[in-house]
Design a protein that fits this description.
297 residues; 79% helix
């Protein structure tokens, strides 16, 4: 999940570069068309005989994946990047509720604390202006709900399934559906104002987002999220804007204030508390127990 977050963090950089030369929905369509093409070329032999479970899981995940991407992309047309980053990050506190709603399972103590701390850090880091909510904010908020359900359903559908064919079919259906969604939205919203300037920067942006951040990373996500919980996955994914911001320092010469750095560190602390809090707590309890035993002796 940490590797996925690293790759996704850099997609912000390449997407920002690519959108200088192409319309948003067309960029998304080409990005995932490239990923879909590579999957068919290299792994097409696994796309035979879809069973009911893989079809159901692929359609649900693909629809949530596409809805989240398309709504977030159009939301960015009407809102700022920090505002979008904060609202998208609200998937962190949403995931525990979605997880409880779908699975009826309680969340452990330290992931709960981690969610609260990471959300506070995200607020400080993004500095959202909630006094001026606009259409972009509303679209991004809806996309966040899509991401929360996507992360949770990924856990539900892939839990206990280790066969590679199932993973390939899930990834294929996700790519196919998002290509269809983004193509439809292109013809509805962007066709009459299409922007497309072929350049080396655009090709590099499409190559990174299509090959690394989509083709490879979606496989990693689909294959390995089942080894953690949806809540912990959401917490780790919350570091995406931090990674993107650090990369922006070197590529776009963007500087960050002391308050923003503090917010980023608080987010990292939230993730660490969720992951290692129980180990530290249990270790402390054992240490205290040994001290008491020694004192009695």
């Amino acid at each position: 999940m940490g590797l996925i977050t690293l790759f996704w963090g850099f997609t912000f950089i390449f997407t920002k570069i690519g959108l200088d030369f192409i319309s948003g929905s067309l960029f998304v369509a080409l990005r995932f068309s490239l990923a879909l093409f590579l999957l068919i070329i290299f792994l097409g032999k696994y796309l035979k005989q879809f069973d009911k479970e893989s079809l159901k899981a692929g359609i649900v995940l693909g629809s949530l994946y596409a809805g989240g991407f398309v709504l977030q992309t159009y939301g960015l047309k009407f809102t700022t990047v920090p505002q979008s980053a904060f609202i998208t990050g609200l998937a962190i506190p949403m995931v525990p509720f979605v997880y409880w709603f779908l699975e009826k399972k309680s969340i452990q103590f330290f992931p709960k604390i981690g969610v609260i701390i990471a959300t506070i850090g995200l607020w400080i880091f993004s500095k959202p202006d909630i006094s001026s909510i606009n259409l972009g904010d509303l679209l991004t908020l809806i996309s966040t709900l899509f991401w929360a359900f996507y992360i949770t359903y990924m856990d539900i559908f892939t839990r206990g399934r280790n066969d590679f064919k199932f993973t390939v079919q899930l990834v294929f259906l996700q790519f196919l559906i998002i290509v269809l969604f983004s193509t439809i939205t292109f013809f509805i919203f962007d066709y009459n104002n299409t922007r497309f300037i072929l350049s080396s920067k655009l090709l590099i942006a499409l190559a990174y987002n299509g090959i690394l951040a989509s083709f490879i990373v979606t496989f990693i996500h689909t294959a390995y999220q089942k080894f953690t919980t949806p809540v912990k996955a959401a917490l780790i994914f919350s570091l995406e804007p931090v990674i993107a911001s650090i990369a922006s320092i070197f590529i776009f010469n963007i500087s960050f204030s002391f308050v923003e750095i503090v917010g980023a560190l608080i987010m990292v602390a939230g993730v660490l508390i969720s992951e290692i809090g129980k180990f530290i707590f249990n270790k402390d309890k054992k240490t205290i127990k040994k001290i008491k035993v020694g004192a009695n002796l």
